[in-house]
């Protein structure tokens, strides 16, 4: 028997893996920016960003996260995966800090998963390293 918490964790993981698969399979150049979203239950949304994140991509992401439907879909929980961000400036970190603050005030749980090294550098440049709780993937290697 699976607990409700276990089912919720499984749905979160499946949604996160789904958006990662979507950004990885996008028929674009390696550094082309891609944003993908997937619902994993009422009020729960996973989002992944990949490629080169410049000011234009930050503006697109800001507009997406401000859309009424996206806010409704992520009213309870927003999981953001940045493992495929190749390069970015501090603008992404600042945007996510504003989103995190606003969404937490609205009662939404915000989780940042698998930040790329490029995003970590952007966090440091934006002096926001203490603002986020970051969840990193556990990398397992095949035996042998």
Automatic annotation (TrEMBL):
Gene3D superfamilies: STAS domain (3.30.750.24)
Domain of life per record: Bacteria
Transmembrane segments: none
Domain MlaB-like STAS: 47-121
Alphabetized Pfam families for the sequence: STAS_2
InterPro entries: MlaB-like_STAS, STAS_dom_sf
Protein name, entry field: STAS domain-containing protein
Organism in which the protein naturally occurs: Actinomycetospora atypica
Organism classification: Bacteria, Bacillati, Actinomycetota, Actinomycetes, Pseudonocardiales
